[in-house]
């Protein structure tokens, strides 16, 4: 029995029960009034026009490991039912993030034990929703969202986790987590001033591309590290003044020679030796923002060792600072950041480069099973822009 039939049957049964009670107690003739019945409202759902199967596929972490293929399995499960304040979303695109393997390794919340659902973000259409959620959302609406369990064909999300978007285009997905991270970290911790030098590591990736563009908009001089000539060309195209392909150039030597006064702000995502190099190149009063340390994520500890004995002296002598940034700590500012980012994206002031895997050995990332390939692809350093996986839905949707 499909979920629609099930819910429809539940609703009909409920209505018949109400009718019987009313008839029995002569309530039929009573003037109409609203029924305040919370148990009923929590079962109310709008499936208008949707065609929803009874089962779906989703990715579940069954064993803790930073090796995504070892940790995660593809399962067939019932399509979940939204509660009162929830949306049931049919995913069209899901976003791949470097931290998908931190999550599968249980590093986010060590108290959570497998099995748990994988994936942080997606974009799709609302296909059913609870009564409270229907105050703000409607069936057929395009939404992007951040929340656990995104690697699934359908996902139930509290409506507060969702954001209405003009259409189901993956560019909006790129803004959601990657764009917001660059925007909020640079705004809160960067204190960018016109003419300052900003170094972005993993600059051609999902979040790096936004850091480059936002620093340029703040009229800074932007330096970006990357691993190929193609990425360096892309960085030029989005305004990066000095792309450094670390496969062919010595980053440290370039920085020493071309930026003798140092770098004012670093947007640092790689960790390990690149972090050490970034610390060494800080200008007086320089600010290094720790966005991540991807070079360590695949190891058992999740960290790449660094030599930190001299760190206090290095920072003191330059009045420099290092600060960490974690997006969930900035949710109070998230809505206004997204408003700004969406506006910039619509006006063409910020571009969202997407990598859908066209150039990967097995081609475009299509379907949930290709999430595994997409994670491997990112970890081989081949992605240019935000990695997204498209989900195909064989159902004959009317939406
Ligand atoms: N703090 C937060 O709230 C937050 C939010 C979002 C993302 N992040 C962080 O931002 C960073 C980028 O994440 P993303 O999802 O946007 O990924 P991404 O930049 O799209 O992809 C990762 C890129 O990292 C570079 N890289 C350098 N060393 C690497 C290594 N040893 N292994 C694999 N890749 C390496 C590669 O580019 P090159 O080969 O060109 O160097 C690769 O393309 C990560 O550190 C992530 O944890 C943090």
TrEMBL record:
Residue ranges of coiled coil: none
UniProt EC number: 1.3.1.48
Domain of life of the organism encoding this protein: Eukaryota
UniProt-listed InterPro entries: ADH-like_C (IPR013149), ADH-like_N (IPR013154), ER (IPR020843), GroES-like_sf (IPR011032), NAD(P)-bd_dom_sf (IPR036291), Quin_OxRdtase/zeta-crystal_CS (IPR002364), Zn-ADH-like_protein (IPR051397)
Flavoprotein among keywords: no
CDD domains according to UniProt: Mgc45594_like
Keywords: Oxidoreductase
GO MF annotation list: 15-oxoprostaglandin 13-reductase [NAD(P)+] activity; zinc ion binding
Uppermost EC category: oxidoreductase
Identification of the protein by name: 15-oxoprostaglandin 13-reductase
Gene: PTGR3
């Amino acid at each position: 029995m499909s979920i629609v039939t099930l819910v429809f049957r539940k609703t009909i049964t409920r209505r018949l029960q109400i009718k019987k009670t009313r008839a029995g107690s002569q309530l039929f003739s009573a003037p109409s009034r609203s029924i305040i019945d919370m148990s009923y409202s929590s079962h109310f759902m709008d499936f208008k026009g949707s065609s929803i199967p009874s089962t779906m596929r989703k990715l579940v972490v069954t064993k803790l490991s930073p090796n995504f293929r070892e940790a995660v399995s593809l399962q067939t499960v019932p399509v979940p039912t939204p509660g009162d304040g929830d949306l049931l979303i049919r995913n069209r695109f899901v976003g791949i993030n470097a931290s998908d393997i931190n999550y599968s390794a249980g590093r986010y919340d060590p108290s959570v034990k497998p099995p748990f659902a994988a994936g942080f973000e997606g974009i799709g259409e609302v296909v059913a929703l609870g009564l409270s959620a229907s105050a703000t959302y409607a069936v057929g609406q395009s939404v992007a969202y951040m929340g656990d369990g995104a690697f699934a064909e359908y996902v139930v999300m509290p409506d507060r986790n969702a954001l209405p978007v003009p259409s189901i285009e993956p560019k909006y997905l790129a803004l959601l987590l990657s764009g917001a991270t660059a925007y909020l970290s640079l705004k809160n911790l960067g204190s960018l001033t016109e003419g300052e030098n900003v170094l972005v590591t993993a600059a051609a990736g999902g979040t790096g591309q936004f850091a480059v563009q936002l620093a340029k908009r703040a009229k800074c001089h932007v330096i970006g590290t990357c691993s190929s000539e193609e990425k360096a060309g892309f960085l030029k195209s989005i305004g990066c003044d000095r792309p450094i392909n670390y496969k062919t150039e010595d980053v440290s030597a370039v920085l020493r020679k071309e930026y003798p006064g140092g770098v004012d702000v670093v947007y640092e995502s790689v960790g390990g030796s690149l972090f050490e190099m970034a610390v060494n190149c800080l200008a007086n009063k320089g600010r290094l923002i720790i966005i991540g340390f991807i070079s360590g994520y695949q190891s058992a500890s999740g960290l790449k060792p660094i030599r930190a004995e001299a760190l206090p002296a290095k920072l003191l002598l330059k009045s420099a600072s290092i600060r960490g940034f974690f997006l969930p700590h900035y949710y109070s500012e998230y809505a206004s950041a997204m408003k700004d980012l969406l506006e910039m994206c619509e006006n063409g002031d910020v571009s969202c480069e997407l990598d859908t895997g066209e150039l990967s050995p097995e081609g475009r990332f299509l379907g949930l099973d290709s999430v595994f390939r997409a994670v491997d692809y990112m970890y081989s350093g081949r992605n240019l822009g935000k990695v997204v996986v498209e989900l195909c839905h064989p159902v004959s949707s009317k939406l």
